[in-house]
C-alpha cells in the first residue's frame, strides 16, 4: 500500500521568506531576488497555502502583473520582469516539494511564460553623451568617471562600483575584476580616456575607487537623465553602446570583444552589436581596398543648414562645429565637406577618436549626410 505524503501547511509569504534565508542570500543577485520576493508577498497569492495555489492562480497573477504599472518607473511592468518573478516562484516550488514537504507539485511549471522582446537596441547619441558628461562633471568627478568607464570599458554598473584601487593598474592599463556576474574573474583593458578619468581623482593604494552604492548611483543617474529630458535611456544601455563601439572599431574580432566585455555566450553578445547605419554607408560604397581603408577613417557625418542675414553655413551637431558662412547652399556644402575632411585628418594624425556620428532618420528633411571624400 502506498503511503500518502502528509502536506505541511505553509503560506506562500512564509515560504518566500524561508527561500530568501536559505537560498537567495547565497546568490550574487540576492538584492534583485529580494525585490521580486517583496512584489510576490504583496500579491493576492501571498496568504494562500502553497499546496492550494493552482496553475490558474499563477496564470491570473501573470496577467495581472502584465497589465499593472510599475511604481518605480511609471511604465507598464515588462514581460521579462514577470518571467523572472515566475522563475523565482518555480524554483521555490521545486525546492519546497522536495525538501520542505509543503506541496506535491509545481503549479508554475506548465503555465505559459510572457513573450520577451528580442532586447533593447537603444544607442547613445553624441549630443546625449556630451550633455550627460557635462551634467555629471558639474555634479562631481566620481559620477563623470563612472560614466566614462561605462562607455570605454563595457563594464557593468556593479563591476564599476565594486572596483578597488589595489586592482587598478594605471601603468599597465588594466582593471582586475576578482568576481563578475558570471562567477569568474576578468581583466579589463583601460583605454586612454578610461585611464585619464581614473587619474583625475586617483585615490589611495587600496580601498574602493568609488563611494557610491548601487541605489545611490541609480538615484543620481535617474535624476540627471530626467533633468536633461533624455527619454528611454538606461545606464545598462551604456554597456550596449560600449560593445557596439568596440565592434565598430573594426580591429577586434568577436572573441576579443567577448574577453573585454565578459560575455560567455556569443549569441548573447550579438544582441549588443547594433552598428550605426551612417558608419556602414561608406563601406557599402567602397570599391577598392584603398578606398575601404580611407572610408573607415573618413566617414560621413549628419549636418543641417543654418541661415542668417543672407548667409548660409552648415552645422555638425555631433562635432559642435559650424562651417564658414557662404552665399549659397552649394558653396556651404563644399565648405562643410572640406572642413569635415580637415577635422578628421587632424584627429587621425593626433591619434584621437571623434564622437561617432548620430543617427539620421529616413525622409528627414532637416538633416543630411556630409561626406568628407
Name of the CATH homologous superfamily of the largest domain: Intergrase catalytic core
Number of strands: 7
Query: How far is it from the N-terminal to the C-terminal residue, by CA?
Result: 87 Å
Helix content: 40-55%
Radius of gyration: 26 Å
Low-confidence stretches: none
Number of helices: 15
Within the largest sheet, what's the order of strands? 6-5-4-7
Instruction: Estimate the strand proportion.
Output: 5-15%
- What shape does the CA trace take? elongated
The CATH topology of the largest domain is given as hpI Integrase, Chain A
Order of helices and strands: HHHHHHHEEEHHHHHHHEEEHE
Largest sheet: 4 strands, antiparallel
Protein structure class: alpha+beta
- What number of structural domains do the residues give? 3
| Arithmetic mean pLDDT | 86
Search tags:
alpha+beta; 373 residues; 3-stranded antiparallel β-sheet; hpI Integrase, Chain A; Double Stranded RNA Binding Domain; 4-stranded antiparallel β-sheet; 3 domains
Structure description:
There is one protein chain. The mean pLDDT is 86. This protein folds into three domains: 89 residues; 145 residues, Intergrase catalytic core (hpI Integrase, Chain A, Orthogonal Bundle); 93 residues, 2-Layer Sandwich (Double Stranded RNA Binding Domain). With 373 residues, the chain is an alpha+beta fold. It contains 15 helices and seven strands. It is elongated and about 90 Å long. The chain is 47% helix and 8% strand. Helix 1 runs antiparallel to helix 2, helix 5 packs antiparallel against helix 6 and helix 6 packs across helix 10. It has a four-stranded antiparallel sheet, with helices on one face. A three-stranded antiparallel sheet has the order 1-2-3.
Amino acid at each position: 500500500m502506498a503511503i500518502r505524503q502528509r502536506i505541511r501547511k505553509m503560506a506562500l509569504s512564509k515560504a518566500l521568506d524561508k527561500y530568501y534565508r536559505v537560498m537567495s542570500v547565497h546568490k550574487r543577485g540576492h538584492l534583485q531576488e529580494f525585490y521580486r520576493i517583496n512584489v510576490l508577498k504583496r500579491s493576492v497569492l501571498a496568504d494562500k497555502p502553497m499546496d492550494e495555489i493552482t496553475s490558474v492562480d499563477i496564470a491570473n497573477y501573470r496577467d495581472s502583473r502584465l497589465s499593472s504599472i510599475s511604481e518605480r518607473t511609471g511604465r507598464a511592468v515588462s514581460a521579462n520582469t514577470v518571467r523572472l518573478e515566475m522563475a523565482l516562484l518555480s524554483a521555490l516550488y521545486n525546492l519546497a516539494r522536495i525538501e520542505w514537504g509543503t506541496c506535491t507539485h509545481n503549479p508554475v511549471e506548465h503555465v505559459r511564460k510572457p513573450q520577451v522582446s528580442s532586447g533593447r537596441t537603444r544607442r547613445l547619441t553624441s549630443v546625449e553623451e556630451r550633455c550627460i558628461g557635462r551634467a555629471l562633471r558639474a555634479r562631481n568627478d566620481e559620477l563623470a568617471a563612472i560614466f566614462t568607464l561605462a562607455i570605454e570599458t563595457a563594464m557593468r554598473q556593479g563591476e564599476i562600483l565594486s572596483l578597488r584601487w589595489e586592482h587598478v593598474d594605471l601603468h599597465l592599463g588594466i582593471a582586475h575584476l576578482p568576481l563578475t556576474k558570471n562567477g569568474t574573474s576578468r581583466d579589463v583593458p583601460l583605454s586612454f580616456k578610461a585611464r585619464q578619468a581614473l587619474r583625475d581623482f586617483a585615490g589611495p593604494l587600496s580601498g574602493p575607487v568609488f563611494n557610491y552604492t548601487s541605489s545611490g548611483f541609480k538615484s543620481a543617474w535617474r535624476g540627471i537623465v530626467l533633468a536633461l529630458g533624455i527619454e528611454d535611456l538606461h545606464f545598462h544601455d551604456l554597456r550596449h553602446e560600449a560593445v557596439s563601439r568596440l565592434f565598430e572599431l573594426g580591429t577586434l574580432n568577436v572573441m576579443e570583444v567577448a574577453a573585454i566585455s565578459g560575455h560567455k555566450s556569443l549569441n548573447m553578445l550579438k544582441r549588443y552589436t547594433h552598428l550605426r547605419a551612417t558608419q556602414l554607408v561608406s563601406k557599402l560604397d567602397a570599391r577598392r581596398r584603398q578606398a575601404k581603408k580611407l572610408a573607415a577613417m573618413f566617414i560621413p557625418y549628419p549636418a543641417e543648414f543654418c541661415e542668417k542675414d543672407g548667409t548660409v553655413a552648415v552645422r555638425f551637431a555631433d562635432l559642435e562645429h559650424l562651417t564658414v558662412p557662404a552665399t549659397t547652399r552649394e558653396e556651404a556644402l563644399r565648405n562643410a565637406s572640406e572642413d569635415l575632411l580637415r577635422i578628421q585628418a587632424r584627429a587621425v594624425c593626433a591619434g584621437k577618436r571623434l564622437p561617432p556620428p548620430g543617427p539620421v532618420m529616413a525622409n528627414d528633411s532637416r538633416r543630411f549626410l556630409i561626406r568628407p571624400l
